[in-house]
Design brief:
Layout lengths: L1 H9 L1 H30 L9 H43 L2 H7 L1 H42 L1 H48 L1 H6 L1 H54 L5 H40 L21 E10 L14 E10 L3 E6 L5 H8 L7 E6 L2 E2 L2 H8 L2 E4 L19 H10 L8 E2 L2 E2 L6 H14 L4 E5 L7 H17 L3 E5 L11 E6 L2 E5 L1 H9 L1 H7 L1
Parallel strand pairs: 3-10, 3-11, 6-9, 9-10
Antiparallel strand pairs: 1-2, 1-4, 4-5, 7-8, 11-12
Helix pairs in contact: 1-2, 2-3, 2-5, 2-9, 3-5, 5-6, 5-9, 6-8, 6-9, 8-9, 15-16
Length: 558
């Protein structure tokens, strides 16, 4: 199975050591059976003298078996830790465009459900390994006692395993459907949690979400998990009963047809009884291992980037740049609803933009005009599909992208609220700068700190944006992108933002690119840009004056 091959690839020598322990455990198990056969069954009279030897073998078997299982389980948990860390690092190193196409529900399902299933599989993996090793070792011993009985027994057990495999294939099919349904359930959970306010206000919407969406997905999950459990329990019971049937066949062949002595038949029966529990446990472990295989398939299907060494934060970003240019930059969104001859989805561009150091630039535009796409192109989060970006005349390629991003701090409309201040290059922020901006943002009495960590992040939306701006300023980056930052501020602080904060940022040498529709404050911008249907224009003269009088009215005219 892929689980074993992946473990072997990353932990080759520890894995080999665990397998050797399992072989020793199997040898001791077979040795215990052979000891019973030769010393306890065949020897008559006083057996008290050999009892200590037998107890010694049993104790050694217990110790080695426990050691091999614990070693394999420990190795498995180390592997799961590495897998989880690798998956998180892959997400961190994957392009934003790919992550947005996947969606948070599918990523969360892989981080939680898939990793959990692989962890459970490792808990059950020792049972499978032990069952296989013991079966192979016991077969060698039984073949030495009676090749004929071994052939018949092997055919019987083979038929049992074939029936079990037929059932297990159906377990795998239904577990695959269970995993697909889990993605849908995670989306339902996300809708219930993120939309709790709207659902509390509109109980009709809540009922529709519960009865039409969630209940349908939950029923589908229930259907497939019941089918998987049914086939799994059938496989376990078939294996259990058929192993008992094998004992009857052995005694019939030995006593009825004279294929072997009663002692050999007793040894076969004892061995089959000894193998019954490991084999049933191995069959019982198969669904968890199949779930792990489904999890591997889902993680592979995410098509995330290969993890890179480090985080690129040490990439040199020195140099007082003077001009950033976008030249013929285009970005096309993929679309699954295209007709014949249609080349795809919404296109932003071609865009031509020059941004000079120390400028204060405002951008306006309606919903779906391409403002957010431009912001992601400008900050390097999106790769242009066509055109180029240059910094002081140097064309930026993929190797420059990580360093280029380090010049930006941003507060997006859908920003995530972190709780720790970080300074340049990941160091502690300048305490003087932080204290000064706490006063500027009027947040000194609102925030409580434990070192650099904010201990009371439960703030209003406007205060959360102020905290996000504080964190952006503390990073001391050259360029600051603010996406509708003032939209959640009260009128008084909105005025402070445009008349005091933005001039202060410019005096600090920052280049500020702000998406805003507060037309009363457009006079504070050095330049005013507009996005419309994926195209960018600069508003000057009468167009700028008209937008400054009524930005919303201008957008409605087109």
């Amino acid at each position: 199975m892929e689980l074993l091959s992946v473990v072997y690839r990353y932990y080759r020598w520890p894995f080999v050591g665990v397998m050797l322990l399992s072989l020793v455990s199997a040898a001791l198990g077979i040795g215990a059976i052979a000891f019973i056969n030769r010393r306890l069954i065949e020897v008559s009279g006083d057996v008290g003298s050999i009892l200590p030897q037998f107890l010694g073998i049993v104790v050694a078997l217990l110790a080695v078996t426990l050691a091999s299982q614990l070693a394999l389980t420990t190795l498995g948990h180390h592997f799961v830790y590495g897998l989880r860390s690798r998956l998180v690092k892959q997400i961190l190193d994957t392009d934003i465009e790919r992550l947005e196409r996947l969606g948070s529900a599918e990523l969360l399902a892989s981080l939680s459900s898939d990793v959990r299933n692989i962890t459970i599989a490792f808990v059950r993996l020792p049972e499978l390994v032990q069952g296989i090793v013991l079966t192979l070792g016991s077969a060698l011993y039984l073949g030495w006692l009676s090749p004929g009985l071994l052939i018949v027994t092997s055919l019987w057990v083979g038929a049992t395993m074939a029936a079990g495999a037929w059932l297990v294939r159906r377990v795998y099919r239904h577990l695959s459907q269970v995993r697909e349904t889990e993605d849908a359930l995670y989306r339902d959970y996300q809708a219930v949690i993120d939309g709790r306010k709207e659902l509390a206000l509109n109980r009709d919407r809540a009922q529709a979400l519960f009865e039409d969406t969630y209940d349908s997905d939950a029923r589908r999950y229930r259907h497939h998990i019941i089918r998987a459990d049914t086939y799994h329990l059938s496989a376990v019971n078939v294996s259990n009963i058929m192993m008992l049937g094998a004992i009857g066949v052995v005694f019939y062949l030995a006593n009825g047809l004279g294929w072997a002595s009663t002692e050999v038949a007793a040894t076969f029966s004892l061995t089959l009884l000894f193998l019954r529990t490991p084999l049933i446990s191995a069959v019982g472990a198969l669904p968890t291992l199949l779930s792990a295989q489904v999890a591997f398939d889902k993680i592979r299907g995410l098509d995330l980037a290969e993890p890179r060494q480090g985080f690129g934060r040490r990439v040199a970003v020195s140099g007082a740049w003077q001009e950033l240019r976008l030249e013929g930059v285009s970005f096309r969104y993929s679309s699954s609803h295209t007709s014949a001859g249609d080349s795809g989805g919404f296109v932003v561009g071609p865009l031509d933009l020059s941004l000079k150091r120390g400028e204060l630039v405002f951008l306006i535009g309606g919903n779906g005009s391409g403002k957010s796409t431009l912001a992601k192109l400008l900050t390097g989060l999106y790769r242009p599909h066509e055109g180029s970006m240059t910094l002081d005349g140097k064309v930026l390629n993929d190797s420059d992208r990580e360093g280029f991003r380090q010049r930006f701090s941003a507060v997006y409309t859908d920003f995530h609220q972190f709780d720790t201040l970080v300074g340049p290059d990941g160091a502690s922020p300048d305490p003087v700068l932080v204290q000064r901006w706490l006063d500027v943002l009027k947040m000194r009495d609102k925030l409580h700190f434990d070192g650099q960590r904010v201990t009371n992040p439960e703030l209003s939306q406007g205060q959360r944006k102020r905290l996000a701006l504080l964190m952006a300023v503390a990073e001391e980056r050259d360029i600051l992108l603010l996406d509708e930052w003032a939209a959640d501020q009260d009128p008084q602080f909105r005025r402070v933002f445009y008349q005091e904060l933005l001039p202060k940022l410019r005096s600090m040498g920052k280049t500020v690119f702000a998406i805003s529709h507060d037309d009363h404050y457009f006079q504070h911008a050095d330049r005013l840009l507009e996005m419309r249907a994926g195209q960018l224009i600069e508003l000057t003269g009468e167009n700028r004056e008209a937008a400054s009088r009524d930005a919303v009215g201008r957008l409605e005219q087109h």
